[in-house]
Amino acid sequence: MSFDLVLFGGTGDLTWRKLMPALFQAFRHGKLPAGGRVLAVARDERSDEMYRGFIRERFAEVESAKRPSEEEFARFAEHLHYMRMDLSRPEHYATLKHWLEQRGADTVVLFLATSPHLFPQICTQLGAAGLNGANVRVVLEKPLGHDLASAREINRVVAASFHERQALRIDHYLGKTAVQNLSALRFGNALFEPLWRRESISNIQITIAEALGVGTRGDFYDRTGALRDMVQNHALQLLTMIAMEPPATNDADAIRDEKLKVLRSLKPFARESVARDVVRGQYRTGTVDGQPAPGYLEEVRVPADSRTETFVALRTEVQNWRWAGVPFYLRTGKRLAARDAHIVVNFRPVPHPIFPGAHQANKLVIKLQPEDGLELHLLALKGTGTSDLLSSVSLDLDFDKAFPSQRVGAYERLLLDALAGRLNLFVRSDEQEQAWTWVEPILKSWADDEQAPRPYAAGSWGPPAASALVARDGFVWSEEA
Ligand code: BG6
Question: How far apart are CA 61 and CA 20, in angstroms?
Answer without folding.
Answer: 12
